[in-house]
Write a structure and sequence with these properties.
cell projection; DRC10; 8 helices; 276 residues; mainly alpha
Length: 276
């Protein structure tokens, strides 16, 4: 077996640093930074939802209220005007309309930011397809969390965290080496097992072949014995038949002799009777 790498001691402070940060800013400056980041994230999310909301204004009008609904209608009107001016040589008018469109968007976003519950509700209600904007928003959220962690982490905690991460990296490396060695052992054991199985398979195959050959030889021997038995039986029958024929012939010969003797005896008897 492989030696187990020495277990690194995990500093409690470092573990706390790795846990999700408690979002409780401890200063006005921190709160201001987080507010700006959170508002930016909300603006990005709502900007992505606005085209979908405008496309279903009748559905969301009651939820949005008259002010936001009116602003969205005006924004849609400006957006259509800018679309019509695309490719137009009237650059000044086009730039003015684009500026109005940007101002309209900022105004709508301010209205949304003033109503956090509405923003949360719209995030659940409005269904949009995934787009590259999602990646950007996710990256910005990660930036916000990273910034908060940096703000809330003291230099001593940061140093302890780095030390802990180095220890973790070392442990990971040691574990990788252990896993590699164990994998090599496992591969060797599997190979040995495979060779043993192959060897046993060959033995079984050889035994099977031997048994088949024995069965064939036994069958051949039985057939030969049967043939020899039949041959001997035929020879015995033939010899018996020949003996019977000879006996029959001998019987007939003796019967003829007996008949001749009887006749001869009778003739002699007649002669004797005549002499008397």
């Amino acid at each position: 077996g492989m030696a187990t790498p020495e277990k690194a001691v995990t500093p409690i402070g470092a573990m706390k640093l790795l846990e999700p940060c408690q979002l409780k800013p401890d200063s006005m400056e921190t709160e201001r930074i987080l507010t700006v980041l959170d508002e930016t994230i909300t603006k990005l999310e709502m900007t992505r939802l606005i085209p979908r909301i405008i496309g279903s204004l009748e559905r969301f009008a009651r939820m949005l209220g008259p002010e936001i609904t009116g602003s969205l209608l005006e924004h849609q009107k400006l957006s259509n005007e800018v679309q019509h001016l695309l490719g137009s040589p009237r650059e000044e008018i086009k730039r003015a309309k684009e500026q109005c469109l940007k101002c309209s968007l900022r105004h709508i976003l301010r209205l949304f930011l003033a109503n956090p519950l509405l923003c949360q509700g719209l995030k659940y209600e409005v269904q949009v397809r995934r787009s590259p904007a999602d990646v950007f928003i996710k990256a910005f959220v990660e930036l916000r969390d990273f910034t908060l962690e940096k703000i809330l982490t003291s230099p001593a905690e940061e140093e302890e965290k780095i030390k802990f991460m180095e220890e973790m990296s070392l442990r990971v490396e040691q574990n990788k080496e252990t896993i590699t060695a164990l994998q090599a052992e496992l591969a060797a054991a599997i190979q040995t097992r495979k060779e043993e199985v192959d060897k046993k398979d060959k033995m079984i195959e050889d035994l099977k072949t031997t048994m088949e050959n024995l069965a064939k030889d036994c069958k051949a021997d039985i057939q030969q014995m049967q043939q020899e038995g039949k041959k001997q039986q035929k020879e015995k029958v033939k010899a018996s038949q020949e003996m019977c024929a000879r006996l029959q012939e001998d019987i007939q010969h003796r019967r003829a002799q007996f008949t001749a003797l009887v006749l001869e005896h009778r003739a002699s008897e007649l002669v004797l009777r005549k002499v008397k």
